[in-house]
Amino acid sequence: MASFKINEAVFDKLANILKKHQLGEVEYQDSNFKIRIAARNTMMQRGEAYTEKIPEVADPSTTISVPTDDWTRHSGALKSPMVGVCYLAPEPGAKNFVEIGSEVSEGQPILILEAMKVMNLIKAHKSGKVVHIAVKSSDPIEYGQLLLVIE
Protein backbone atom coordinates (compact mmCIF):
# COMPACT_ATOMS: atom_id res chain seq x y z
CA MET A 1 0.00 0.00 0.00
CA ALA A 2 1.41 3.38 -1.02
CA SER A 3 1.73 6.06 1.60
CA PHE A 4 1.43 9.76 1.07
CA LYS A 5 1.92 12.93 3.05
CA ILE A 6 -0.91 15.46 3.26
CA ASN A 7 0.18 18.99 2.45
CA GLU A 8 -1.46 20.73 5.40
CA ALA A 9 -1.01 24.20 3.87
CA VAL A 10 -3.08 23.17 0.84
CA PHE A 11 -5.63 21.46 3.08
CA ASP A 12 -5.95 24.55 5.31
CA LYS A 13 -6.28 26.88 2.33
CA LEU A 14 -9.02 24.73 0.77
CA ALA A 15 -10.86 24.53 4.10
CA ASN A 16 -10.72 28.33 4.41
CA ILE A 17 -12.05 28.76 0.85
CA LEU A 18 -14.86 26.31 1.63
CA LYS A 19 -15.84 28.23 4.76
CA LYS A 20 -15.36 31.76 3.34
CA HIS A 21 -17.53 31.13 0.27
CA GLN A 22 -19.99 28.82 2.08
CA LEU A 23 -19.41 26.02 -0.44
CA GLY A 24 -20.60 22.44 -0.09
CA GLU A 25 -17.30 21.07 -1.34
CA VAL A 26 -14.05 22.14 -2.96
CA GLU A 27 -11.54 20.10 -4.97
CA TYR A 28 -7.92 20.73 -5.96
CA GLN A 29 -5.70 18.66 -8.22
CA ASP A 30 -2.12 18.94 -9.43
CA SER A 31 0.16 16.46 -11.17
CA ASN A 32 0.92 14.58 -7.92
CA PHE A 33 -2.34 14.44 -6.01
CA LYS A 34 -6.00 15.28 -5.84
CA ILE A 35 -7.83 16.45 -2.72
CA ARG A 36 -11.53 17.07 -2.15
CA ILE A 37 -12.96 18.62 1.01
CA ALA A 38 -16.69 18.54 1.70
CA ALA A 39 -18.51 20.51 4.37
CA ARG A 40 -20.63 18.56 6.79
CA ASN A 41 -24.09 20.03 7.11
CA THR A 42 -24.55 20.20 10.89
CA MET A 43 -28.27 20.98 10.46
CA MET A 44 -28.98 17.59 8.98
CA GLN A 45 -27.90 14.03 9.53
CA ARG A 46 -27.70 11.70 6.56
CA GLY A 47 -31.15 10.80 5.24
CA GLU A 48 -32.93 13.06 7.72
CA ALA A 49 -35.63 15.48 6.53
CA TYR A 50 -34.65 19.13 6.30
CA THR A 51 -36.85 22.08 7.20
CA GLU A 52 -35.62 25.65 6.95
CA LYS A 53 -37.20 28.25 9.22
CA ILE A 54 -37.63 31.73 7.81
CA PRO A 55 -37.55 34.46 10.47
CA GLU A 56 -40.84 36.26 11.00
CA VAL A 57 -40.98 39.99 10.23
CA ALA A 58 -41.93 41.85 13.39
CA ASP A 59 -43.61 44.80 11.66
CA PRO A 60 -45.52 44.06 8.41
CA SER A 61 -45.04 47.68 7.28
CA THR A 62 -41.30 46.99 6.96
CA THR A 63 -41.83 44.16 4.46
CA ILE A 64 -40.12 44.89 1.16
CA SER A 65 -42.12 44.30 -1.98
CA VAL A 66 -40.10 42.10 -4.34
CA PRO A 67 -40.76 42.04 -8.08
CA THR A 68 -41.90 38.60 -9.26
CA ASP A 69 -38.88 38.25 -11.55
CA ASP A 70 -36.54 38.24 -8.53
CA TRP A 71 -37.90 35.25 -6.62
CA THR A 72 -34.60 34.62 -4.80
CA ARG A 73 -35.20 37.68 -2.59
CA HIS A 74 -38.82 36.81 -1.82
CA SER A 75 -39.53 36.24 1.88
CA GLY A 76 -41.07 32.84 1.07
CA ALA A 77 -38.14 31.60 -1.03
CA LEU A 78 -36.93 28.10 -0.15
CA LYS A 79 -33.31 27.51 -1.14
CA SER A 80 -31.49 24.22 -1.38
CA PRO A 81 -29.66 23.06 1.75
CA MET A 82 -27.33 20.86 -0.32
CA VAL A 83 -26.00 19.85 -3.71
CA GLY A 84 -27.97 17.07 -5.36
CA VAL A 85 -30.56 16.06 -7.92
CA CYS A 86 -34.14 17.31 -7.54
CA TYR A 87 -37.22 15.10 -7.77
CA LEU A 88 -40.65 16.74 -7.59
CA ALA A 89 -42.52 13.43 -7.14
CA PRO A 90 -42.02 10.63 -4.60
CA GLU A 91 -41.29 8.12 -7.39
CA PRO A 92 -41.14 8.03 -11.20
CA GLY A 93 -44.59 8.40 -12.77
CA ALA A 94 -46.21 9.57 -9.53
CA LYS A 95 -47.97 12.91 -9.06
CA ASN A 96 -45.72 15.80 -7.93
CA PHE A 97 -45.69 16.67 -4.24
CA VAL A 98 -46.83 20.24 -5.09
CA GLU A 99 -47.82 22.35 -8.08
CA ILE A 100 -48.09 26.12 -8.51
CA GLY A 101 -51.22 27.10 -6.58
CA SER A 102 -50.97 24.21 -4.11
CA GLU A 103 -51.74 25.06 -0.49
CA VAL A 104 -49.08 23.61 1.79
CA SER A 105 -48.60 23.29 5.54
CA GLU A 106 -45.32 23.85 7.33
CA GLY A 107 -43.44 20.54 7.42
CA GLN A 108 -45.29 19.06 4.44
CA PRO A 109 -43.04 17.17 1.97
CA ILE A 110 -42.51 19.27 -1.17
CA LEU A 111 -39.64 17.58 -3.03
CA ILE A 112 -36.70 15.19 -2.77
CA LEU A 113 -33.02 16.01 -3.16
CA GLU A 114 -30.84 13.02 -3.92
CA ALA A 115 -27.30 13.46 -2.63
CA MET A 116 -24.79 10.63 -2.76
CA LYS A 117 -27.55 8.03 -3.34
CA VAL A 118 -29.46 9.25 -0.26
CA MET A 119 -32.99 10.58 -0.82
CA ASN A 120 -33.43 13.67 1.36
CA LEU A 121 -37.04 14.75 1.86
CA ILE A 122 -37.31 18.55 1.73
CA LYS A 123 -40.26 19.95 3.67
CA ALA A 124 -42.13 23.25 3.46
CA HIS A 125 -40.51 25.90 5.63
CA LYS A 126 -43.86 27.65 6.18
CA SER A 127 -47.56 27.28 5.46
CA GLY A 128 -49.04 29.02 2.45
CA LYS A 129 -49.56 28.84 -1.29
CA VAL A 130 -46.88 27.71 -3.76
CA VAL A 131 -46.49 30.66 -6.17
CA HIS A 132 -43.31 29.72 -8.01
CA ILE A 133 -41.39 26.50 -8.69
CA ALA A 134 -37.87 27.21 -9.93
CA VAL A 135 -36.73 23.63 -10.64
CA LYS A 136 -37.76 20.60 -12.67
CA SER A 137 -37.46 16.92 -11.88
CA SER A 138 -33.97 15.54 -12.50
CA ASP A 139 -32.41 19.03 -12.40
CA PRO A 140 -28.94 19.16 -10.82
CA ILE A 141 -29.18 21.48 -7.82
CA GLU A 142 -26.49 23.63 -6.20
CA TYR A 143 -26.29 24.62 -2.54
CA GLY A 144 -28.37 27.77 -1.98
CA GLN A 145 -30.21 27.50 -5.31
CA LEU A 146 -33.85 28.63 -5.30
CA LEU A 147 -36.21 25.66 -5.22
CA LEU A 148 -39.62 27.27 -4.84
CA VAL A 149 -41.54 30.15 -3.28
CA ILE A 150 -44.41 29.92 -0.80
CA GLU A 151 -46.56 32.97 0.01
Write out key terms for the chains shown:
151 residues, single chain, elongated, 9% helix, four-stranded antiparallel beta sheet, 2 domains, OB fold (Dihydrolipoamide Acetyltransferase, E2P), mainly beta
Layout of helices and strands:
Blueprint: H1 8-20, E1 25-29, E2 34-38, E3 77-79, E4 84-87, E5 103-104, E6 109-115, E7 118-123, E8 128-133, E9 140-141, E10 146-150
Antiparallel strand pairs: 1-2, 3-10, 4-6, 4-9, 5-8, 6-7, 8-10
Q: Strand tally, please?
A: 10
Q: Largest sheet, if any? A: 4 strands, antiparallel
Integer-rounded radius of gyration: 19 Å
The CATH homologous superfamily of the largest domain is called RNA polymerase II/Efflux pump adaptor protein, barrel-sandwich hybrid domain
Oligomer: single chain
Class based on secondary structure composition and strand pairing: mainly beta
- Which term fits the overall shape? elongated
Our measurement of the CA-to-CA distance between the termini, rounded to an integer number of angstroms, reads 57 Å
Instruction: Kindly report the CATH topology of the largest domain.
Output: OB fold (Dihydrolipoamide Acetyltransferase, E2P)
Helicity, in percent? under 10%
| Mean pLDDT across residues | 77
- Tally of DSSP helical segments: 1
Sketch the topology as an H/E string, one letter per element: HEEEEEEEEEE
CATH hierarchy class name of the largest domain: Mainly Beta
Strand order of the largest sheet: 3-10-8-5
Number of domains: 2
Contiguous uncertain segments of 5+ residues:
42-55, 57-68
The percentage of residues in β strands lies in 25-35%
Query: What is the CATH architecture term of the largest domain?
Result: Beta Barrel
